Amino acid sequence: MIKHIHVPAFVEDSSSIEVLDVHITEGARLRRGMVMVTLRQDGVLLPIRAELDGWIRFVAVKPQQTVVRGDLLLITDMVETTDYRVDPAEFNTSTELGHDGRRGLER
User: Fold this and answer.
1) 70-95 per-position pLDDT tens digit
2) What is the CATH number of the domain that holds 12?
3) pLDDT at residue 107 in the model
4) Is residue 60 predicted with pLDDT exceeding 90?
5) Whole domain around residue 21: which residue ranges?
C-alpha cells in the first residue's frame, strides 16, 4: 500500500517548521515505530514515525529545509501484514534453543 507522508495537520501555520534530520534513505527498510524524519517547530521536536512495516520509495525533504503544514515528506510502501519473507540478514540463528534448535538437554 503506497502511503504519502505529509507534515502533520496539527502544526501551527504561524511559525516555520524545519526538517532537523532525515533518518532514512530511499529503498531503506522500515519497521513499525521507526523514526523516519524529525521536524522542529519553535524548539519542539516532532518525530515522524512509521505506522507499519515497509520500505521507503521517495524522500522529498533534506535536513535544514523549511516546510509548511501539508508538504510532502516521504512516499512509503507499507505492508499491513507480516506475510512477507524474512530478510536472512535480520534473522538470528543463535536463539535460546541454540544453533540447531535444541537446548542440548535431551538425552
Assistant:
1) 899 999 998 876 555 555 565 555 55
2) 2.40.50.100
3) 46
4) yes
5) 2-79
Query: How buried is 67 (Cβ within 10 angstroms: 0-12 exposed, 13-18 middle, 19+ buried)?
Result: buried
Which pLDDT band holds residue 16 (cuts at 50, 70, 90)? confident
- Tracing cell 499491513 back to the chain, one arrives at 80
Residue 28: how many other CB atoms lie within 10 Å? 14
Residues 6+ apart with CB under 8 A from 30: 24, 36, 50, 52, 53, 54, 55, 56, 76, 78
Q: Which of the 8 DSSP states describes residue 63?
A: T
70 half-sphere exposure, CB direction, 13 A CA radius:
1
Question: Could you tell me the three cell numbers for 26?
Answer: 530511499
